[in-house]
Specification:
The structure holds two protein chains of two kinds. Chain A is of the alpha/beta class. Chain A contains 13 helices and 13 strands. Chain A is globular and about 60 Å long. Chain B has a two-stranded antiparallel ribbon with strand order 1-2. In chain B, helix 2 crosses helix 3. Classes of the chains: A alpha/beta, B mainly alpha.
Amino acid sequence: MPKHALTALALYLGLAAPSVALAEWKPNRPVEFVAAAGPGGGTDTFARVVQSALSKNELLTTPIIVSNKAGGSGAETFIYAKTNKGDPYKLYFGTQDAYVLPLANKLSYSLKDLTPIAAMVFDPFILWVNPKTSGIEDVKGFIAKAKEAPGQLKLGGAKAKEADETLMTLIEYSTGVDLTYIPYKSGSEAAIQVAGGHITANVNNPSESVEQWKAGVQKPLCVFENERLADTTVIAEDLSWHDIPTCKEAGIAVDSFAQPRTIWAAADLPPGALAYYTDLFIKAAAAPEFKAYQERGAQIPRLLTGDAFKDFIKKHEASYAEIYKRNGWLRAEQ
Amino acid sequence: MGNFGQLMDGFAVALTAHHLMIMVMGVLLGLVVGVLPGLGAPNGVSLLLPLTFTMDPISAIILLTSMYWGALFGGSTTSILFNIPGEPSSVATTFDGYPLAKQGQAARALTLAFTSAGIGALTGVLVITLLSGWVANFALRFGAAEYFAVYFMAFASFIGMSGGSPFKTLVSMMLGFAAATVGIDTISGEARLTFEFDELIGGISFLIAVIGLFGLGELLLTMEEGLKFEGVKAKLDIRVIARTVAEVPRYWATLIRSALIGCWMGITPGGPTAASFMSYALGRRFSRRGRFFGKGEPEGIVAPETADHSAGSCALLPMLALGIPGSATAAVMMGGLMIWGLSPGPMLFTSQPDFVWGLIASMYMGNIIAVVLVLATVPLFAFILRAPFTVVGPLITVVCVIGAYTVANHMFDVWLALGFGIVGYVFKKLDYPLAPFVLAMVLGDKAEDSFRQAMLTSDGSPAIFFSNGLVATMMGLGLLLLCLPVISALLKGGRGQKDGAAGAPEGRSA
């Protein structure tokens, strides 16, 4: 083959290949979903539901492998992302932890090491008590009990200086009461402690306490949203999720505190891959498996991608930073 | 008994050709996964989970639980043959299983382990069948103080029972506690002892430590002995298996004691690993042959294996009834339950009786199948030991290194395991016991968390540990176990001969 023909071929390949990739990037080998939580945790279930929605509906035909990197409250996942710059075959599943974790801890990754893909759905937070052992029936009773004995009302949640404890400080700030926070390994563990009457209250996603509600050992007091939840199916005590008042109307002036279920890739994700995955997860959110998951968890269907997601991250991170600053939780700058 | 009627319905669900096939498949897969250290039951089950999305929930859970049984059995195999525990819960099996195998009785050691494990598992399932309703309510009574009391009992039984120098036991245990604190602290949310290494932020995996301390440590020791280990001349007599199975009922006292400990630790949050350690320690104390523990004593295999498996079965109950997994594998299965659309919790027993009782029925079947299959592999495994060390040694090294890597796909973990290998070697050279280190590493952070949670709940008053009958009884028992050696020494004066464990020089075990 003449030399110039080779050069031309190389030139052709060099020019054409990227544009082909840009137009229709498609995975041709297994994709790894890394969940920033241990097996059975909220993020793990989220990743696996997305996995089942994708493979059952043949939206993604290459194999999907879910792995768990729960270490350091999930920081392990995002540190791992940092070492896989530009890799389109690894996606990372989390919550707001991706951008909140570096606020309090000195970690070697930052938001710059991640490419945001989508927030698939939002989990609302609910304030729960054990009605039998605490004698509390509503938010008024809760506040009265907390004021009666400052620091004596014990409220449980998952881990320290994360969503649950943040929310507790918001309750304290807006009502002027003094609560004691008790961190557990997971939200369901805290829920069982409330059900057993060992602590008074907990804040939790609906799915983590719904079975205890049905069994009558937990009662939802209010939901930390600006509007009531939509689902009107009766769950327990002739009540539906919709019958639970918002905390605002019940007397705790805390704005919407929903937790996004987020999907990320490492930094420098090829634009073609970003476009592919954005489209893929929009389809996954409409799949019946995902709808069923939303319904079970009384989640708020709100899908964010692209710039809308980026804007949300910026605002959400800023609001957390403000609360952390007030609580004195921001990490010491070096 | 309503439970038995429901169990029969369960058998009707579980006993189909399709489900039996799934059980056999699950057990075989589990065996493979359990034999490879590092892979382990939790990883294996989570790898298999996607396969179950298209199955109906009952077939899916039967597959996963069968794999779990298989992995629990497989984990004991490498403990006995190579001193490498395939599962954390089979660490205690190495103490007597490995010496017995070294004496050329590998087939006997394996058969003892498998048979007693089977008996333990079936006892566990029986407890679940009879007490399912009661256990769910009982478990609700466990607050942070009660959790701590359970861990305290495990530690106390170990300190109180271990032979050798109490000072060395304490040093080893404290080092274990230190290793357990590495990573982000649950209570304060701060990183501890990570020295700003990213790799350490998730803490040190217990499996890595075990692979290093036991597997690699033992290898270094064997090499130093001048490669004397030329393969054990095990006689491959199939009749050994039958004879050993017939031998097991003789250890009825140990079997009952261990099964009780196992069920207790499975229902309460202690878990299989703690159960096997505690059962071994109590076995050494209360068995008539206790002073031979650590030198290849059959009862030293029966005790941890029975407890491990009865705890493993019982640990499924809190998962189903409360959504609190009793072991790492149970946590993975719980994740599966949620994806299949079932919510674990108090209402599962009434809303999904077919599922729950089908699962319980399958646990009887699965364990019986597992015992039969695993006994069939004994000649094969015993044969491996006849290979000379020049073949087995490098093989073990490779298995250890791959195992360390597979835990989390981190190269860092491999270096860590090598480090632990050297630590294990030094420990053995200086005659420091490894078991307290391992126990402290498994339960250390859980005990710390529950202690601090209890103190937060009580505003710093230790009275919470004696605030009700349940927790006070457990703490009292713990204190008694802790002081038992002192008390019995005082009572018996110079007649020390009977508690050989207290005075006799200790071999390789605790």
